[in-house]
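Hi R.,

As promised on Friday, here is the backbone we talked about, encoded as structure tokens. Could you run it through your design pipeline when you get a chance and send me back a sequence?
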């Protein structure tokens, strides 16, 4: 009963070592995600949160691991926490779990096993990326709708503007469909977009060069294969 009331003292040296190891490992994971991740969200901004999440997890596990009472209290405290921002991208969820797992491993003093596991996971992700077909990397279906003159007098000019914007930002651009209905020109392209920054520039240029247009992007990687 004594250990339930009076937890064992936390070793400051061990905590600092675990925090530094967690920071190093999670920084490598964050760099990998920012450089080679495939999510359409702001990967750089998201990657900055990974080391912080890992260190918070290390601290939490280090504090509660020595006392069953603290562990039960932490379960009760976390049960009332509600997160309003949903994680919609499976890849983001994967890296969040990886950051937490790193924190749990180092917080439980399983340093060697955690480093080996992180290394194996990163090697697997690198191999998977190298073996992935290049044509399926960062391909987007772009649907653009532009309202022109009812008689279609300016359709050619609008078409040229859209093609010009896409050609400057995409590595390859393929025209897949062109429709005109009730004065609205609808265009569908398959675009090979280099990264998130390129996509952001593309959105800005479309808004500037083709005012009033509406557009949507669909990640081809999420579509079922035919």
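Update: got your reply. Pasting your designed sequence below so it's all in one thread:
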């Amino acid at each position: 009963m004594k250990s339930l009331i009076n937890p064992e003292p936390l070793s400051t040296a061990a905590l600092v070592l675990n925090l530094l190891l967690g920071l190093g490992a999670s920084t490598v994971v964050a760099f990998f995600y920012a450089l080679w991740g495939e999510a359409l969200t702001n990967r750089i901004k998201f990657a900055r949160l990974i080391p912080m999440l890992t260190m918070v997890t290390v601290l939490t596990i280090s504090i509660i691991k020595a006392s069953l009472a603290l562990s039960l209290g932490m379960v009760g405290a976390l049960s009332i926490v509600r997160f309003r921002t949903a994680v919609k991208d499976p890849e983001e969820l994967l890296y969040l779990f990886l950051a937490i797992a790193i924190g749990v491993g180092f917080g439980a003093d399983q340093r060697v096993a955690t480093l080996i596991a992180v290394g194996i996971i990163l090697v697997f992700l690198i191999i998977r990326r190298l073996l992935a077909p290049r044509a399926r990397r960062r391909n987007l279906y772009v649907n653009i709708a532009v309202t022109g003159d009812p008689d279609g007098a300016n359709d050619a000019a609008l078409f040229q503007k859209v093609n010009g914007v896409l050609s400057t930002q995409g590595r390859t651009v393929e025209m897949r469909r062109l429709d005109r209905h009730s004065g609205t020109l609808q265009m569908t392209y398959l675009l090979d977009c280099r990264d998130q920054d390129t996509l952001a520039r593309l959105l800005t240029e479309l808004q500037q060069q083709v005012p009033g247009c509406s557009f949507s992007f669909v990640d081809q990687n999420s579509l079922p294969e035919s």
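One thing I noticed while checking it: Residues 222-226 have pLDDT under 50 and may be disordered.

Thanks again,
M.
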